[in-house]
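Cross-check.
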Amino acid sequence: MSDAASPASHRRAIPADARVDGFVLADGWPLRRFDWPAAGTTRGAILFQCGRGDFFEKYLESFAHWHARGWHVTTLDWRGQAGSGRTGPAAHVGHIDDFDAYLHDLGAIWDDWRARAAGPRVLFGHSMGGHLALRALAAQLVDPDAAVLIAPMLGLRAPVGARLGQTVARLMARVGDPARAAWKGNERPDTLLSRAALLTHDADRYADELWWQAQDPRLLTGPPSWTWLAEAFRSTAELNASPTLATVKTPVLLLVAEADRLVDPHATIAVARRLPDAEIVRFGAEAAHELLREADPVRARALAAIDAFLDARASPR
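Predicted model, tokenized:
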């Protein structure tokens, strides 16, 4: 199934030949893992990193597209969200003490996955997953043949600006419970737009997320904590200022939604220009944050750009 408009059956069912199991980190923390080996000859392997508050079922439709093209697809829920437990006391708050914990987890995941995956090996990252994938590339914790960053979180939208936003978030984390929710709902508090409008123009694909959460309440992570928010500001600022970006030799494709209301597309474009081997594909007002879950014309263009990049830069050896 290589066309972008895949049937809804691929969006609301785990494939029969896929496996959902656990991956235990060195400190004993269990992550929920999805693994879908290629049928027949393997084109290569994709390790997909989701965004903040995501769960892997949201991307089954895209996984089906790549799987049909011969890719072995693996993904895991991040520590502290969806099916990988919580790092704070609240069931519906996404909390982390330090973004370096995510980075260490990704390094361990990569080492285990790399040993089993037939190349070429490609690292994908959406939103927060894109930020962490690029951090891991810059820190040489991963060595993919290519990387695809989809609406990567390389800068956060903030009504007061990133610098003041970080100061406010750090202060709020210090004056109360650092693991408490930074706001009550939605993906950001300073907008009249619905959560659905911030993510996609496709009502049916947005409804898929709610359907999965109704099947398994663990998948609802909820808003971030004040510490998560402060760490996100800190981590993006440090990455954007890092000279190690110039050392990333991996070919990188960046898909940018210029009307994104969650992450800063200007920051992404600025970072891309500092990477030695980067391609940028831009989307306009027709696209919100979740490019892989957008209306068919946007999603088809995103998948076509990814496929062309992989054909050119991650050819079978």
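The chain has one domain: 8-313. Residues 1 and 68 are 5 Å apart (CA to CA). Passed to J.P. for a second look.
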